[in-house]
Amino acid sequence: MKLNPIYITVFLFTLILSGSSIMYPQQEEIAEEEEVAEQNTIKQIISISELVSLLNSPDKECIISDYEIISTDNDKAFLIDKVFFSLYQISPSSEKSKKIYFYNCDFNLSNNTPLKFTNWQLTKLNVVGCQFNCPLEFENFPHSREQLLFENCIFKNDVDISNKFSPANKLNFRNCKFYSTLNIDVSLENLNIEDCNFIADDKIFSEKDEEGINYQLSISDKNIGNLTISSSRFDNNGNENIFSINLGNTNLGNVLLDSIRLQVLNLSSSNIEKSLMIDSLFVEKYIGILNFDFPEKNTNSSWSNLGGEKLAVFWDDKYGTVNIFQAKTDAELSNNLVYNDLMSAYNKFNTLYHDRGDIRSANASYVEIKDIETRKQKFEQSVNPSFNNLINYKLNIFLKYFSDYATNPGKSLIQSLWVLLGFTFLYMLTFSAWDGMNYKYYVSQLGILAKYVGSQDSLKKVLENDRELNSAELGNYSEIDSFFDYYQKNGKRLPHLLKLFGGTLTFVGKIRLNFISRIIHALNFQPKAWESLETIEKFWSGLIILLISLCFIAYVFIVKFVNSLILSLNSFVVIGFGSLPEQENSLAMYLSIIEGIIGWFLLTIFTITLFSQVLQNA
C-alpha cells in the first residue's frame, strides 16, 4: 500500500507536539512503581494486639513496614501494672527463633506508656527508619551471631537494653537521634554507636530526679569486648545535671572514641584491658578519672583530647550527692586525699606520654600539673604562710610566664627578646658615649640650622665656621688634601702594591669629598636670609625646614635604636666581661648592671629548658 506523504507529515508533526506526553513501556513501569511507593508511605494504623499477631506469625522472618502502632482499649491484656507505672509487654508465643525487621514505623502509645519486648528468641533484629515516641525496653534476648541494628531511628524517650544479652551479641546504633537516655545494661561483644545525636529533652529529664545526675548514654557495671563511639554529638541544653557518657565500673577490651563532642565523660573505676584510642574528642566540662585503668603500651591519645583541666574526681558524699573535684576552689584544695587522687591521675598520663615519646603531650600535661600545684601553693600560703613557700610560689608563676615551667625553650627565647627590647628603649632615653647624642648635640644642630636660615651665608660657609661639626661630620680636609698631593708627587717612586692601595684610597676619598660637597650644595635651599624672603618663598622654605627636621628626627631615632640595641645585647649576655661604653655614675651604667643580672638569670633558665627538651627528644 502506498502511503500518502501528507498523512506522514501530519503524523510526524503530531508526534513532535505531543512528544512530552509520550511514554515508553519502561517509563510507564517506573511511573507505576513511584505511585506504589507513594502509596506505601502512608502508614497503616494498627494496635498493639495486631502488632503481636504479626510478630507471632509462623514464618521465620517477620517484616513489619510502614505501620503506626498505637494503644487501644483492646490492648489491656498486654498492660502490666508495675505499682508506680504501667507498661505494655510483648512476649513471644513460642520459643522458636526468628528474624524481625521493623521499617518506617511509628510507635505512638497513649499516655506515653513504655513498650517492652522481652524473651524473644531473635537471630536478627533490624530497626530502620522508625520513630519511638514512648519509652522502649528490650529485655532477655538470647545470644546471636547476627548484629542487632538500629539505624536512622528517632527515640523520643528512654531506651533500655538489659539483662541476658550474651557476649556474642553485636549491637549497632547508626545515625540515630536520642532525646533521653540510652541505657545499655548488658554485656556485649561489640557495641558500635556511629553518627548519633543525643539531644536532651528538658521536659523528659525534668520528670526524673532533678537533683541527681542523669546520663544521656549509660554503659556501666558490664563487660564490653569492643566499644566504638564515633562521629556523635551530645547536647545537654545547658542542664548541669545532665551528663553525656557514663562508662563507670565497666570492663572494656578495645575502646575507640573518635570525633565526639560532649559535656561530661565518666571513666571512674573503669578498666580497659587491650587498647584505648581517642581522637578528636571535645569535652566541654569534665572527665571523671578516679581509679581509671588503661593499658599504657596500647593507649593512643594526645593530650589535646584530655587537656584543659577537664580531668576530675567524681565522689559521693555522705548524703549521696555526686561531687566534682578539680582542685580549683579553696574548699577543694583543702581536701588533701582527693587532691592526691587527682594528681596521681595526671601523673599517670604524664608518664604514659614520656614512655610513648609524645613530648608535646608530655609537656602540655606537665604544664597543667604545675598549674594545679601553683594553686595549691597559693592556698597554702594563705592558710599557713611561710617565706620558703612564698618564694617557690612566685618562682612557679615566673616560670609559667617565662618558659611554661621549663618546657618551652621557644617561649623563653621570645620573652628574653622582649626584655632585651625593653632595655633598648630605656637606653634610648639615656646618653651613650657610642653615639655621642646628648642635649649639647641637639642644641648644636639646631644652632647650625638657625644660623643658616637667619643669615645670607651659604650652608658650606656656616659648616666651615662650626669647627666641631666640621671635624666630626666632614673630616679633616687638610690631611686628606696633603695625602693626595703626596701621592701625586711621589706615587711613581712607590712599589706597585702601594700604588694599588693608594690609588684606591685616593679614588674613594675624592668621591666622598665630591659627594659631601654636592649634598651641601643641594641643601643650600635658602640663599637669602629669612627676613628677606617673600611670602611664597617663606612657605616653600618652611616646608623644606619641616622635611629636614623630620629626617633629622628619624636619623636620631635610628642611630639611637641601633646603638641602644647593641648596648642592651652587650649588657644582657656579657655580665662581668668587657667594658661598657658608659660614663661613670650615668643612668645607663646602672641600667646595664641590672640588665646583666636579669640576663644571666634568664639565659640560665633558657639553657636548662633547651637542654631538657633536647635530652627528652634524645
Summarize this entry quickly.
With 618 residues, the chain is α/β, with parallel strands linked by helices. The chain is built from 16 helices and 27 strands.
Fold and architecture overview:
The chain is α/β, with parallel strands linked by helices and 618 residues long. Among the domains are: 302-407, no CATH class; 410-456 and 549-618, no CATH class; 459-523. Helices cover 44% and strands 24% of the residues. The chain is built from 16 helices and 27 strands. It has a 27-stranded mixed sheet that branches. Strand 4 and strand 5 (86-90) form a beta hairpin. Helix 7 packs antiparallel against helix 8 (387-403) and helix 9 (409-428) runs antiparallel to helix 16. The termini are far apart. Residues 1-39 and 472-477 have low confidence and may be disordered.
Outline the fold blueprint.
Layout: H1 5-17, H2 25-40, E1 44-47, H3 48-55, E2 61-65, E3 67-70, E4 79-81, E5 86-90, E6 98-103, E7 106-108, E8 115-118, E9 122-128, E10 131-132, E11 136-139, E12 147-151, E13 154-155, E14 159-162, E15 170-174, E16 177-178, E17 182-185, E18 188-194, E19 197-199, H4 202-206, E20 214-218, E21 223-235, E22 242-246, E23 251-266, E24 271-288, E25 299-300, E26 311-316, E27 322-325, H5 330-333, H6 336-356, H7 359-383, H8 387-403, H9 409-428, H10 439-454, H11 459-465, H12 467-474, H13 477-490, H14 496-522, H15 535-573, H16 587-617
Parallel strand pairs: 1-3, 2-6, 3-7, 5-8, 6-9, 7-10, 8-11, 9-12, 10-13, 11-14, 12-15, 13-16, 14-17, 15-18, 16-19, 17-20, 18-21, 19-21, 20-22, 21-23, 22-23, 23-24, 24-25, 24-26
Antiparallel strand pairs: 4-5, 26-27
